[in-house]
Request: fold
Amino acid sequence: MSDRLAVRKTYKLYVNGAFPRSESGRSYEVTDAKGHFLANAAWASRKDARDAVVAARGAFAKWSGATAYNRGQVLYRVAEVMEGRAPQFTEEVAAGEGLSTSRARAAVDAAIDRWVWYAGWTDKLAAVLGGANPVAGPYFDFSLPEPTGVVAVLAPQQSSLLGLASVLAPVLAGGNTAVVVTSRERPLPAVTLGEVLATSDVPAGVVNLLTGDAAELGPWLAEHADVDAIDLTGAPVRLRLELERSAAGTVKRVVRAPETEPDWAADPGLSRLTPFLETKTVWHPMGV
Amino acid sequence: MTSTTRTDPTPPSPFQYAPAPESRSIVDIAPSYGLFVDGEFVDGTGEAFKSVNPATEEVLTEVAAGSEADVDRAVKAARRAFTRVWGPLRPADRGKYLFRIARILQERAREFAVLESLDNGKPIRESRDVDVPLAAAHFFYHAGWADKLDWAGLGPGPRPLGVAGQVIPWNFPLLMLAWKVAPAMATGNTVVLKPAETTPLTALLFAEVCRQADLPPGVVNIVTGAGDTGRAVVEHDDVDKVAFTGSTEVGRSIARAVAGTRKKLTLELGGKAANIVFDDAPIDQAVEGIVQGIFFNQGHVCCAGSRLLVQESVHDEVVASLQRRIGTLRIGDPLDKNTDIGAINSAEQLARIRELSEVGEAEGASRWQPACDLPARGYWFPPTVFTDVSPAHRIARDEIFGPVLSVLTFRTPDEAVAKANNTTYGLSAGIWTEKGSRILKIADQLRAGVVWANTFNKFDPTSPFGGYKQSGYGREGGRHGLAAYLKGAAE
Reply:
């Protein structure tokens, strides 16, 4: 151990490929599981959430229009860059979640592997979920999955990195763009993930990470007319009903929150991909 | 009854159509109907209402309105049937019941077609050639799935949800029933279905089909009534699944009502489809497609091609050709086999179509209608084309749900896509061009659940149907449609 004084990191938002502070100028104190000071995180505001939606909408055409192979490579790149930063993630997860270093490292490994898993899905979804429909007439008719659009994700409050990866990667794999409200108490791994995303060829605006309070930002995202779907996983219990009702106003696709946080290490199957995919069916006559 | 329609510059034909009415003696409408609960017709405890022939305003019969207590009885019957009979039944036998129903629908097809046209006002040509055969096809298709769900690619060991509460609209009464009931039954669920207030009769005849098929009591329950009855179905605590087809406004309120429950929800809501005609399209074919897109079923179609986007260079040619074609459409008696356009389903809907058409003129669009005589009684609206429409006009934004077409123009493919997608809806769209690569590119860029290229308004039980954005969520038909009725199924 040297006696060198460490250079601390400023933890900021990640919006449209940049790292701004909250436009509100607010920050809040983040502590470790034992209550010791870790950092002052940016406390995102309603305006930050709206800016993030604008960025996500702007990025949608490019990301959804990229080839599935390209999206897969970008998601795999996220895993590669995370691997290099594993010790940093481990330290943050251990501090925030109160885990031993080895358990924190296991969570980080699982999070990295989750990105790899979804990276491999991008160019298989159409084959697995789509296909030709044998209609009773002289038509060629096929169905394909397409991304829903801009997805608001209220990330899990407990599992600050594995949980986050588990809800975010499938949104991206399907070709959607995301506005994520991170765990309020444990936001630091999310900010570091933002730094990974910024250096992994994920186009600016595809992922926007807001540190702050899901109870404050959730209602604005649930009613926002330019948000197509919302994942309520990290929503406070007392707000879940209200958020789902609010989302109904614009016929948003809603992923309801589980009663308690699930075991994120379990195999997710397709359960987190399909809620954010639409099926498009195209007909064309056959003839000469 | 039947009117002749004509418009300049086409001179009136020297040949006249002789009346060709389909006989209504094939249907036997009782003076009153009860609810179909637990395999029996029972009296409803709500206030009975009348079902009217919209082409003549003749009262066809009186139908019971289901109260909350009636809905509760129906849900209990459905739960009992699910637990004791339908759930434990061998999947192959479940399938056989659906096959039976498909066959009986085919056997009694003409009866269903005439009854549908009487109650709904749609031309017999459509009820006979589209609604009823497709309804039978939906049961036949889903029958085959009943014992093959493990191969549907929806995850291992798919299981039914339980009791499905289903609320359907008046535009395709029997067909929408089939879209809802067939997949629910095939996947092992039992059903409480509420048909639309103005078109309950084919659903009640379907109840008789269930009896002829010896379907176990309680598997299908039909509770007639208006909005309150539908609300009671949707909000019942023991309903596991809600499926709704209808307006976006009601869809939103259902999504609100279902919020915070365990119920699985699928919504098939409104639309404002763009039908895009490029300058290289075969104009005559495109015009047929435009007519089919907006005037099929009097435009009472959620996926109707109600916004015509024409490339500027062919606008005049397309509009002239369209007007000529519309001039040959025959409006009148729905039971006449030569009728192209039947009656508007209700006085209420007619008022909405009139109001929005007036708004169209008030906002500056130009209205065109062929010279045509409409029957003196009944609810009628002539096929209507608005030109000089801007994207901000209400007739370019609101779903009219009637035979009213708004014509807009574009110059480039990018502009066509931008205008087509400039809507809160996303149910369907059409593309007309001879260029294959353009079809694929535009189809890819349209944010709509069904894209018809060089055709329009085609439906098939094997082909998933449903919307993007505020046109709803979930799919009906195909492998995808099964997911709506199975536990934890990935779509």
